[in-house]
Design a protein that fits this description.
The structure is a single chain. This protein is α/β, with parallel strands linked by helices and 553 residues long. It has 3 domains: 213 residues, Rossmann fold; 184 residues, Rossmann fold, CATH 3.40.50; 67 residues, no CATH class. It has 25 helices and 14 strands. Strands 8-7-6-9-10-11-14 form a 7-stranded mixed sheet, with helices on both faces. β2, α10 and β3 form a beta-alpha-beta unit. The longest helix is centred in the middle third of the chain and has 21 residues. Bound molecules: nicotinamide-adenine-dinucleotide. Nicotinamide-adenine-dinucleotide binds next to α14, α15 and β7.
């Protein structure tokens, strides 16, 4: 087992010695152990004689990384490094964040989830299965970390756009927590990835001899809810300061679990709330270009799932902050799903769509809805590639001087339109963002660098703010504050080239500022479990872990 020891790092006497130290990824320095450390920690002879610096080790990792032929090989290379030496891993990732984000997270992590049982090398994180019901607290106590502050948990049912990945979904909590550390400096020894294995409906895995999860159909209903409840209660007992982030649960569970737990424990769902905040930030940035107010926008969504309804809910709460009533705000958000415009007269609408079902005649498709409602923004969260057709974008450009067009579906192959289509068909008028990155494109001699509405701009900073203030709950106000802060950090130079999000190279600074805004909400709302210091930024920065070697001797 490669679970790190989480022992104090200062006193050499308390450290594991010899090979045990080299096999502890949180403490291991590899060839960077100094002569003195090698002598007093039982390492002499266990390492080649030359002592390398962290920078030299980074160069070696990058040499190997560049020689890999495929993204999946690059993923395996990085995850293996993480299992050996976390300091070096985070140093490498932090210095190459734009390049490595698509490797350690979407889209490559999706491939890794699909091949989990075949790629498996070492376990990472905690696997809580249906068989463990009744003893979940005991499992949590087996985890070597003493002071867990951020947990990401999935049941693997709706992994990215790839559906049910069963126990292979563990790649997602592992990857997300890597981003918490790389982007916001959450101490890796205080993170815990969790897989709730309740079975899978994926026939391929059920018949695969190398599949590593329970070989049974998913447990559903009250028994499923009871396992989730046992897990959440056990976290409260064993890690009372931990934030629990729900990730990639199927619609039917995600909405219900969030509603059930958000006011009881410290939790949020990134697929809904993180997505909502990053999208709202994009709209705020776009409004810096149009000079208009949020409450005057009419927003039409294609797709009424977790992302769409999550974004709609946060936009409503932000419009209310600008003085609109909830009813007025909801009337400014419209949804088209696979059956056309979501309107009151439609029968059998899912619970989460009802609040956005307006009194209006039905519209069979997106183009009709655009022509009828005259939206200022269209937001694609439908997983339907090319649904923003040329007529749709031309209509938006006829109706608006600067149409806001966000094609957020992932991966790139599912985007509702490409950057080139958005800028080209709108004659360069579109304010565009996408879920997956697009390369810069040239339209009529102008170069456009579009923004990626990546949740990574939001969740690490929110988590850091919650950790620093020890907030009891995560509220919509925190996500709204995160969105406003993110938009405020977009530079005029970014906006000039069409980019409505800051460069990812600034992500630690962005996360720290978001954390300050989130902590301020916690202090104001009386949700913080620490007193508000005079300098909140200092509090946040002091909670940020930096990848550098500690001296053991
Ligand atoms: P989901 O499965 O919960 O929802 C998808 C919705 O699309 C459903 O309401 C479905 O009815 C609707 N839909 C399906 N076919 C349609 C059609 N032909 N026309 C109109 N609507 C149709 O998924 P989700 O979590 O809401 O995610 C949706 C997409 O958004 C995914 O591709 C996901 O990758 C992307 N996403 C992007 C970001 C981001 O950019 N930051 C964040 C979250 C999700």
């Amino acid at each position: 087992m490669n679970q790190p020891s989480r022992r104090p790092r200062s006193a050499a006497a308390k450290l594991p010695h010899g090979a045990a130290l080299l096999h502890d990824p949180l403490l291991n320095k590899g060839t960077a152990f100094t002569e003195a450390e090698r002598a007093s920690l039982g390492l002499r002879g266990l390492l080649p004689p030359h002592v390398h610096t962290l920078e030299e080790q980074v160069a070696r990792v990058m040499d190997n990384y560049r020689n890999k032929q495929t993204d999946l090989e690059r993923y395996i290379h990085l995850v293996s490094l993480q299992d050996r030496n976390e300091t070096l891993f985070y140093k490498v990732v932090g210095e190459h964040i734009e390049e490595m984000m698509p490797i350690i997270y979407t889209p490559t992590v999706g491939q890794a989830c699909q091949q989990w049982g075949h790629l498996f090398r070492r376990p990472r994180g905690l696997y809580v299965s249906w068989k463990d019901r009744g003893s979940v607290a005991g499992l949590l106590r087996n985890w070597p970390g003493q002071d867990v502050r951020v947990i990401v948990v999935t049941d693997g049912e709706r992994i990215l756009g790839l559906g049910d990945q069963g126990v292979g979904g563990m790649g997602i909590p592992v990857g997300k927590l890597s981003l918490y550390t790389a982007c916001a400096g959450i101490d890796p020894s205080r993170t815990l990835p969790v897989m709730l294995d309740v079975g899978t409906e994926n026939e391929g895995y059920l018949g695969d001899p190398l599949y590593m999860g329970l070989r049974q159909r998913r447990i559903r209903g009250p028994e499923y809810d009871a396992l989730v409840a046992e897990f959440i209660t056990a976290v409260g007992e064993v890690f009372p300061s931990a934030l629990i982030q729900f990730e990639d649960f199927a619609n039917l569970n995600a909405f219900r679990l969030l509603a059930q737990w958000r006011d009881k424990v410290c939790t949020f769902n990134d697929d809904m709330q993180g997505t909502a905040a990053v999208t709202l930030a994009g709209i705020y940035s776009a409004l810096r270009l149009t000079g208009k107010k949020l409450r005057d926008q009419t927003i039409l969504f294609l797709g009424a799932g977790e992302a769409g309804v999550g974004i709609g809910d946060l936009i409503v709460s932000a419009m209310v902050d600008e003085g609109a009533t909830v009813e007025e705000a909801r009337r400014r958000c419209w949804f088209v799903d696979s059956h056309g415009l979501v309107v009151k007269s439609r029968e059998g609408l899912a619970e989460h769509k009802l609040r956005f079902a307006h009194d209006a005649p039905p519209a069979p498709d997106l183009l009709t809805a655009v022509e009828t409602l005259e939206p200022t923004a269209i937001i694609g969260v439908s997983t339907i590639a090319r649904a923003f057709s040329r007529p749709v974008i031309e209509a938006m450009s006829r109706l608006n001087a600067r149409p806001i067009i966000f094609a957020l579906s992932n991966p790139t192959s599912k985007a509702e339109c490409t950057a080139e289509e958005a800028y080209g068909w709108s004659n360069g008028k579109a304010i565009f963002a996408s879920g997956s990155p697009f390369p810069p494109c040239v339209v009529k001699g102008t170069t456009f660098v579009s923004g990626q509405g990546n949740n990574v701009y939001i969740f690490p900073g929110v988590g850091l703010g919650v950790v620093a203030s020890q907030a009891r709950h995560v509220t919509d106000q925190m996500f709204a504050a995160a969105a406003r802060t993110l938009a405020s950090l977009v530079l005029p130079a970014d906006l000039e080239m069409g980019r409505i999000y800051p460069s990812l190279t600034r992500i630690r600074e962005v996360s720290a500022q978001i954390a300050v805004a989130v902590a301020e909400v916690a202090f104001k709302a009386g949700l913080a479990r620490v007193a508000r210091p005079a300098d909140v930024l200092k509090l946040v920065e002091s909670a940020m872990w930096t990848p550098r070697y500690r001296e053991y001797v």
